[in-house]
Amino acid sequence: MTSNRLILATLTLTAFFVAGPGISRAQAGELAEDTGAWLQMVGEGSLKAVNPDLEKARVWVEGQTRFDGNWEHWYQGMVRGALGYSLSDRATIWLGYTWLPTQNQNKPYIAQQDFWPAFRYVLPTDIGTFTFRTMWESNFLRGNQVRERPRQMIKFVHPFEFEPRFSLVAWDEAFYRVNTTDWGGKSGFDQNRVFAGFGWNFNSHVRTEIGYMNQYLEDAKHVNMTMHHLGMASVFINF
């Protein structure tokens, strides 16, 4: 498959996740809006420092903290860890775990756990770098019910010619509920996240990104929607 066809196929898949189920229900209920912020730190690197034979083995560690209520209320954290293997200089497979403690306003504390495989493909082009990441989460919360939720991300980074360390960053990630669960809601469209901002490479090991993220979520019955307007700041460490 050529690079252009790969880009087109992935964009089509994301458009199906985002537009298809979401637009059909967009006017079924009420839309609540809120502002907040997400802060993120991600570390990723090879395990060759542990053993030279593990050069293709990789580790991914990530932490996030999230605020809503017009920036005044902490409502969620996220800790993620994974082991991966580089199939090539562009393709990596992962197996990981996520812990998601949540304290929504006027609701009891909960902590979702996710187990997931993932595949990432990095595609350099003349106009910038595209990154495609597919994850398939098995979400656990209460009892023995497991919600299956695939998610697809497309990210684009375009370095500016006048300063290659400075770049335009845009990405979109769509989530879909495969099955119906008591706690996770009816199957169908779950949420979409879209980001636009700027990045800065301090060096080959440290990169930052800052910008605006729009998070659109549907409730358990696909009736009411929530839209979060979020400032997002990220630090990426490559080791």
Could you give a short description of this structure?
With 239 residues, the chain is mainly β. It has one helix spanning 3-25, and strands at residues 31-46, 57-68, 73-86, 91-102, 110-124, 129-140, 146-160, 163-177, 188-201, 206-218, 225-238.
Helix content: under 10%
Largest sheet features: 11 strands, mixed, barrel
**Low-pLDDT ranges:** 1-24
**Helix- and strand-based class?**
mainly beta
Count, helices: 1
The count of β-strands is 11
Strand arrangement in the largest pleated sheet: 1-2-3-4-5-6-7-8-9-10-11
Characterize the structure shown.
- Strand 4 (91-102) and strand 5 form a beta hairpin.
- The chain has an eleven-stranded mixed β-barrel with strand order 1-2-3-4-5-6-7-8-9-10-11.
- Residues 1-24 have low confidence and may be disordered.
- The longest helix is centred in the N-terminal third of the chain and has 23 residues, at 3-25.
- The chain has one helix spanning 3-25; strands at residues 31-46, 57-68, 73-86, 91-102, 110-124, 129-140, 146-160, 163-177, 188-201, 206-218, 225-238.
- It has 239 residues and is mostly beta strands.
